[in-house]
């Protein structure tokens, strides 16, 4: 969503105070960074009425009329114009209309990064059909759960044997839900699945009348983007038409316009690649160079070949790029800004020095969140600002507060209110829920998950009746009021660019009947961003670990967890962990990690080649860590 400092009231106050701010700089040198944010807000305010006045699908159709022959998507050296993408989307819409789908329905969709993802999404939007965007890495229970969580009337599966196999494995779970597959000939479609391509080929490319989506409103659901939330299986987050517009405007922070060429290697089913990048494409009418998967060796050659001006990233992408051999053309490119998150300070500085990108705009947010932080000052490692001055002007202020690491909740003072931290301290990040989000009742974040929804809210944070959103992340506040990511607490951690739910992993790992309990947490691996999964297991009384049982643990993880969620390390605890102290012991386990010289319990590491877990020794640790780089 756009930063709330874009609010007209804030900009008006800031404009009136402009002269005074300049005088304050001597006493408050950090205020110059606030001025940057305010100036950015003034620039974006010009677009506010525009991006809030229309739906993204309408904007796309307007771009088709304005420049039909312009390249919209470049994929695997093929150019897909706005006109062509519109025709393909029209065919999708016409097929779906013939099948009886209409405005207000929901369809689940699992498609790799490719043009078909985009035109399928647009085709469904032409009818006002909401789209649940399924992670292509999911299998078994997480897959079937994610599909049914939004109560769809059909499931679209894109091209690729991996997707077909994943769906075939759980086909019985779908019951009577129609499953339409792409990328197959009629003779290749398995029994129980429907051949979408045959219908698609016969459909006309004429645009369906916009009246078919006349029932769409700003509050209508455009899409569901999944997050691990804080517990359990993936949860669908409502992305309304209004919120989609806000997400699509995010890269206007770095001046995205119709002449830009965006480079997107992030998955389109997530809110970064598929929200900020793809919705930004719909919003501005620019060009996107899309890759199915990220390739460090092709990154800069692609940027030069296609005259990329804006790149999207997560921190891990740049770490892999830096590991490539240095080249004399490293700084020869037209990239004027990189927009993303998760870039550590040391990587930030190395990227600036080697590749000389004029602006690295690091942001902080969450799919289910109500605000965004942004660093437009090129301050290495910073993810935004939480300053007293901006909070004074902001109708939806932010705060870092003291918290209990064992509960992931704020600590309250004697009056029952949250306690703000001071510069030089860390605190849990909260953001006030905008009044507009509460206009029709309490904030609803997740579909069909009331308990998880309530856990994201902090009531009566600083005064009676206020409502703040709890991001579950601890940030560090420096003397200039820049904030830096410090840690994720509670029941999630991030690995390989994905959120991992500890509860979801624990439910799977504890399935073998010899395991009494599974305590899941994230541990740091040198040279990697985020945290890798580790499971501390307690066995039933009298049981012991054997090679066969290690294979069994590996098997349930392989079957029921996506690759990024599978624990890389196991630790066998001698005593059961009581429920009442479960989280308290987790803190100490995280500190101890997987170092066999420090941990006296038996340790094991994931051996994907042999499909098992193997004993971890001091001698084998260095080799294993090296293999993960």
UniProtKB/TrEMBL annotation:
<protein>
    <recommendedName>
        <fullName>long-chain-fatty-acid--CoA ligase</fullName>
        <ecNumber>6.2.1.3</ecNumber>
    </recommendedName>
</protein>
<comment type="similarity">
    <text>Belongs to the ATP-dependent AMP-binding enzyme family.</text>
</comment>
<dbReference type="GO" id="GO:0005324">
    <property type="term" value="F:long-chain fatty acid transmembrane transporter activity"/>
</dbReference>
<keyword id="KW-0443">Lipid metabolism</keyword>
<keyword id="KW-0276">Fatty acid metabolism</keyword>
<dbReference type="GO" id="GO:0005789">
    <property type="term" value="C:endoplasmic reticulum membrane"/>
</dbReference>
<dbReference type="InterPro" id="IPR042099">
    <property type="entry name" value="ANL_N_sf"/>
</dbReference>
<dbReference type="GO" id="GO:0044539">
    <property type="term" value="P:long-chain fatty acid import into cell"/>
</dbReference>
<dbReference type="InterPro" id="IPR000873">
    <property type="entry name" value="AMP-dep_synth/lig_dom"/>
</dbReference>
<keyword id="KW-0436">Ligase</keyword>
<feature type="domain" description="AMP-dependent synthetase/ligase">
    <location>
        <begin position="60"/>
        <end position="395"/>
    </location>
</feature>
<dbReference type="Pfam" id="PF00501">
    <property type="entry name" value="AMP-binding"/>
</dbReference>
<dbReference type="InterPro" id="IPR020845">
    <property type="entry name" value="AMP-binding_CS"/>
</dbReference>
<dbReference type="GO" id="GO:0005886">
    <property type="term" value="C:plasma membrane"/>
</dbReference>
<dbReference type="InterPro" id="IPR045851">
    <property type="entry name" value="AMP-bd_C_sf"/>
</dbReference>
<dbReference type="GO" id="GO:0004467">
    <property type="term" value="F:long-chain fatty acid-CoA ligase activity"/>
</dbReference>
């Amino acid at each position: 969503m756009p930063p709330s400092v874009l609010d007209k009231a804030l900009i008006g106050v800031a404009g009136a105070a402009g002269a005074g701010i300049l005088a304050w700089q001597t006493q408050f040198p950090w205020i110059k960074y606030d001025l940057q944010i305010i100036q950015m807000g003034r620039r974006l305010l010009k677009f506010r009425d525009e991006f809030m006045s229309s739906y993204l699908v309408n904007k796309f159709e307007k771009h088709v009329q304005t420049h039909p022959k312009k390249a919209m998507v470049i994929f695997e050296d093929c150019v897909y114009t706005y006109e062509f993408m519109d025709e393909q989307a029209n065919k999708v819409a016409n097929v779906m209309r013939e099948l009886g789908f209409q405005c207000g329905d929901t369809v689940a969709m699992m498609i790799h990064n490719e043009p078909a993802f985009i035109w399928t999404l647009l085709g469904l939007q032409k009818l006002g059909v909401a789209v649940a965007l399924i992670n292509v890495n999911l299998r078994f229970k997480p897959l079937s759960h994610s599909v049914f969580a939004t109560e769809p009337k059909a499931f679209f599966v894109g091209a690729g044997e991996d997707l077909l196999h994943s769906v075939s494995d759980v086909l019985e779970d779908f019951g009577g839900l129609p499953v339409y597959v792409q990328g197959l000939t009629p003779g290749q479609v398995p029994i129980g699945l429907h051949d979408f391509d045959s219908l698609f080929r016969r459909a006309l490319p004429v645009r369906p009348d916009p009246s078919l989506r006349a029932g769409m409103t700003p509050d209508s659901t455009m899409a569901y983007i999944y997050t691990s939330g804080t517990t359990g299986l993936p949860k669908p987050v409502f992305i309304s038409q209004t919120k989609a517009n806000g997400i699509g405007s995010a890269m206007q922070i770095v001046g995205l316009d119709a002449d830009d060429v965006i480079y997107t290697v992030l998955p389109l089913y997530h809110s970064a690649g598929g929200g900020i990048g793809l919705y930004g494409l719909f919003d501005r009418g620019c060009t996107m160079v899309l890759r199915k998967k990220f390739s460090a060796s092709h990154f800069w050659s692609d940027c030069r070949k296609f005259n990329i001006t804006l790149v999207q990233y997560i921190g891990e992408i740049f770490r892999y790029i830096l590991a490539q051999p240095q080249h004399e053309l490293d700084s020869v490119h037209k990239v004027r800004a990189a927009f993303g998150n998760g870039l550590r300070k040391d990587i930030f500085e190395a990227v600036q020095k080697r590749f000389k990108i004029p602006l690295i705009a690091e942001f902080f947010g969450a799919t289910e969140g109500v605000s965004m932080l942004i660093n437009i000052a090129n301050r290495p490692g910073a993810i935004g600002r939480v300053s007293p001055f901006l909070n004074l002007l902001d109708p939806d202020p932010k705060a870092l507060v003291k918290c209990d690491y064992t509960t992931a909740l704020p600590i309250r003072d004697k009056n029952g209110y949250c306690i703000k931290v001071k510069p030089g301290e860390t605190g849990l990040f909260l953001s006030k829920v905008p009044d507009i989000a509460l206009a029709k009742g309490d904030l609803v974040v997740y579909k069909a998950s009331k308990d998880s929804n309530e856990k994201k809210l902090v009531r009566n944070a600083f005064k009676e009746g206020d409502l703040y959103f709890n991001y579950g992340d601890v940030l560090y506040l420096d003397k200039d009021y820049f904030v830096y990511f410090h840690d994720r607490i509670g029941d999630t951690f991030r690995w390989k660019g994905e959120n991992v739910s500890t509860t979801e992993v624990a439910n799977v790992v504890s399935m073998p009947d010899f395991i009494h309990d599974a305590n899941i947490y994230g541990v740091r691996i040198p040279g990697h961003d985020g945290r890798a999964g580790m499971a501390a297991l307690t066995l039933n009384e009298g049981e012991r670990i054997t090679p066969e049982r290690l294979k069994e643990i590996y098997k349930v993880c392989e079957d029921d967890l996506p690759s990024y969620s599978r624990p890389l390390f196991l630790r066998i605890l001698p005593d059961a962990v009581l429920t009442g102290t479960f989280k308290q012991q987790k803190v100490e386990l995280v500190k101890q990690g997987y170092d066999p010289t420090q941990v006296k319990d038996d340790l094991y590491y994931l051996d994907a080649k042999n499909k098992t877990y193997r004993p971890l020794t001091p001698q084998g640790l260095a080799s294993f860590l090296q293999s993960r780089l």
